[in-house]
Amino acid sequence: LEDEARHWPREGERMLQAFALAAERLGLELGPLAFEVRSSIPIGRGLGSSGAATAAGLLLAAGLAAREVE
């Protein structure tokens, strides 16, 4: 995480939460991972950053599982 995001608590990270849930449900067995996330959507202003982060996590897990998202 860079800039102001570097100091945010990790337990509220929507992209990581969505990725972890999807990876578990898809049966992915993964070792340690590192993520770099960039977004031009302002955080905390009601413009959809939480939804975008959730979708990104789900799509990332689906991509690693080599499955199509329905």
Summarize the structure.
The chain has helices at residues 14-25, 49-64.
List keywords for this structure.
mainly alpha, single chain, 70 residues
Strand percentage lies at under 5%
Q: What is the general shape?
A: globular
Low-confidence stretches: none
Strands, total number:
0
The main sheet comes to: none
**Helix coverage percent:** 40-55%
Mean pLDDT: 80
Task: Give the topology string: H per helix, E per strand.
Answer: HH
Question: Termini distance?
Answer: 30 Å
Structural class, by secondary structure, is mainly alpha
Query: What Rg is obtained from the alpha carbons, in whole angstroms?
Result: 13 Å
Individual helix count:
2
Give a description of the structure.
The chain has 70 residues and is mostly helical. The protein has helices spanning 14-25, 49-64. α1 (14-25) packs parallel to α2. The chain is globular. The mean pLDDT is 80.
What order do the helices and strands come in, and which of them pair?
Layout: H1 14-25, H2 49-64
